[in-house]
Amino acid sequence: MKSLTLPLLIAALALGGCGRLADSRLNPANWGGGRAAPASLEPEGGYVAREQLPLVPQLLGAEWQPLNEGRLLVVRGFAPRKGYHSAALVTTRLQPGSRLAPDADGILRLRFIAVPPAEGDPAALPAAPATDTITVALPFSTIQLNRLRAVEITGADRVLTLSR
Asked: What Rg value do the Cα atoms of the chain yield, rounded?
């Protein structure tokens, strides 16, 4: 044991004098030579937060559908052009994770959002109201429903309110 102590002490002092280990040639991450860093996967315009996405242009309706342990909120909307995607119901007030807590008055306020097609996209043809509706659904457990008095859904053209 005594014969191993001196070499370990010398090695520790030698490595400590090399500066930061991240910059050292002893670090395996630096063994690649002059490789360039990988290109970023971030889109050119950056990421858009869900809270900044535009509202669906027209709300058609909302309804509750029964589930085994709660209800399903189904909301339908319409956009004048085809190509809207990633539709969702998001809370107006930021909440952690996927939490759906109502405001102090017992009303859960939601925004009906969707990503519009790119400007000048030739595939964004005029939409037909009979076939090109945008539908989203959000499940609510019985426990979540007990805390709610009503749900308020905001679109670009109007606000719908459903009591539980």
From this structure: 28
Residue 99 CB coordination number (10 Å)? 9
Instruction: Provide the token pair at 154.
Output: 């905001």
Nearest to 67 by CA among 149, 138, 18, 161: 138
Q: What is the mean pLDDT of each run of 10 residues along the chain (164 residues)?
A: 74 64 66 65 67 87 95 94 89 82 92 88 79 93 93 94 90
What is the pLDDT at residue 125? 84
CA 9 from chain centre, in angstroms, equals 51
Structure tokens at 2: 């005594």
- Length of the chain in terms of residues written: 164
**How do the domains of the chain map onto residue ranges?**
52-163
What is the reported pTM? 0.68
Q: What is the DSSP string of 101-164?
A: ---TTSEEEEEEEEEPPPTT-TT-PBPPTTT-EEEEEEEEEHHHHHH-SEEEEE-SS-EEEEE-
